[in-house]
């Protein structure tokens, strides 16, 4: 069945409207042992002139299924993204300088977050944080999954 020019234009417009308008600036990866990983990308669409705040998009991929959400239809997204700034930072730990016990988890779920960062003196850079269960990163990633579960389309 052939599409008319108008129908084709409307279909293309709908696809573009739901597609991210910028490349992702952060990525969260959740990899349970012996299971497929979940990858969530974070991006920015535009500065909303009504709210004077940035609008965001997220893309979630798991088992080959891609889902999307945006901060206009999912207001909880803005809070979850804001919580990203409050994840307790992972500190460098050179051998021989440990201040206490070391906790190792040999199994469980691996979490990774990478994206833009800023030092306390406002210098910018990029970071990548990797951790396992029972960490501040794991707690935040679990809140992302729970809070945004109803938002994915």
Shape: globular
β-strand amount:
25-35%
Instruction: Please count the helical segments.
Output: 3
Distance between the termini: 27 Å
Helical residue percent band: 10-25%
Please, what is the oligomeric state? single chain
- The ordered H/E elements are HEEEEHEEH
**Total beta strands:** 6
Main sheet: strands, sense, barrel: 6 strands, antiparallel
What is the radius of gyration computed over CA atoms, rounded to a whole number of angstroms?
19 Å
Q: Enumerate the strands of the largest sheet in spatial order, edge to edge or round the barrel.
A: 4-3-2-1-5-6
Mean pLDDT: 84
In the predicted model, the low-confidence regions spanning at least 5 consecutive residues are: 5-19
SS class:
alpha+beta
What does this structure look like?
α2 packs antiparallel against α3. The protein has three helices and six strands, in the order αββββαββα. The longest helix has 14 residues. β2 and β3 form a beta hairpin. It starts with a helix and ends in a 5-residue tail after the last helix. It is an alpha+beta fold. It is 23% helix and 34% strand. The radius of gyration is 19 Å and the shape is globular. A six-stranded antiparallel β-sheet has the order 4-3-2-1-5-6, with helices on one face.
Concise overview:
This protein is α+β, with helices and mostly antiparallel strands and 153 residues long. The chain is 23% helix and 34% strand.
Layout of helices and strands, plus pairs?
Blueprint: H1 5-18, E1 26-32, E2 38-48, E3 53-62, E4 65-70, H2 76-83, E5 109-118, E6 124-131, H3 136-148
């Amino acid at each position: 069945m052939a599409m008319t020019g108008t129908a084709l234009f409307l279909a293309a417009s709908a696809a573009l409207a739901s597609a991210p308008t910028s490349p992702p600036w952060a990525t969260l990866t959740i990899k349970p042992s012996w299971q497929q990983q979940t990858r969530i990308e974070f991006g920015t669409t535009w500065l909303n002139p009504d709210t004077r705040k940035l609008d965001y998009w997220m893309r979630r991929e798991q088992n080959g299924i891609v889902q999307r959400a945006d901060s206009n239809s999912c207001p909880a997204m803005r809070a979850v993204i804001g919580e990203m700034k409050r994840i307790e930072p992972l500190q460098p730990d050179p051998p021989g300088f440990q201040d206490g016990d070391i906790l190792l988890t040999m199994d469980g779920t691996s979490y990774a977050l990478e994206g833009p960062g800023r030092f306390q003196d406002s210098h910018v850079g990029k970071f990548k944080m990797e951790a396992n269960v029972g960490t501040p990163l794991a707690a935040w990633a679990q809140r992302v999954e729970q809070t945004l579960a109803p938002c994915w389309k």
